[in-house]
Write a structure and sequence with these properties.
Layout lengths: L2 H41 L13 H33 L17 H6 L2 H10 L2 H50 L2
Length: 178
């Protein structure tokens, strides 16, 4: 197999894995929509009271636990939504090129180069430069993928915690009305 083709296949593979990570993050985002809907449904039945004025110690404790679990859930949901949108789904640009360096394989660089220069570079490109260009992008997308995988793993853990907090919130809010 030719080195350039091998590098291109590697690049395509990593790009597909990044798309897969983005799709998983999108699916979790949809699931968070269901969690938010359930949370709102149970929150609509609640009303604010001072738990210390209720007079019933058990109801006061249940009221405080409902508030604390709801607040924790809201904070985790906000953090997770931010992480999904800005740490995973948000498009990334290359960070590992020097100021004077440009790549014929990277859209941002191509957008800043004069059309005649690009045409001339493509007409005169050597196989060594092709390989270097593709490997440069393999390196860039590998760095992006590493960050996205790490963040997705964290989001999955917090997703599980969100489900537990939602169940705790539902449990305590249901006790208030029993």
């Amino acid at each position: 197999m030719d080195k350039v083709i091998f590098a291109l296949e590697n690049f395509k593979n990593i790009q597909e894995l990044i798309k897969f990570i983005d799709q998983k993050a999108g699916a979790i985002l949809v699931l968070y929509g269901f969690i938010i809907a359930a949370f709102i449904e149970f929150t609509n039945r609640l009303f604010l009271v001072n738990p210390f004025e209720i007079g019933d110690y058990k109801k006061s404790l249940i009221s405080i636990m409902t508030f604390v679990s709801g607040l924790a859930l809201v904070l985790i949901l906000l953090y997770q939504l931010y992480s999904i949108l800005f740490d995973i789904i948000k498009p990334r640009l290359a960070k590992n090129y020097s100021k004077n360096e440009y790549s014929l394989f990277y859209f941002e660089h191509i957008a800043h180069i004069d059309k005649k220069v690009i045409i001339a570079d493509y007409e005169n490109i050597t196989e060594e430069r092709m390989l270097a260009e593709v490997i440069g992008q393999v390196y860039e997308v590998s760095k992006i993928m590493k960050k996205k995988v790490k963040k997705l793993a964290q989001i999955v853990k917090f997703f599980f915690l969100s489900i537990i907090l939602l169940l705790i919130f539902i449990f305590f809010s249901s006790l208030l009305f029993s």
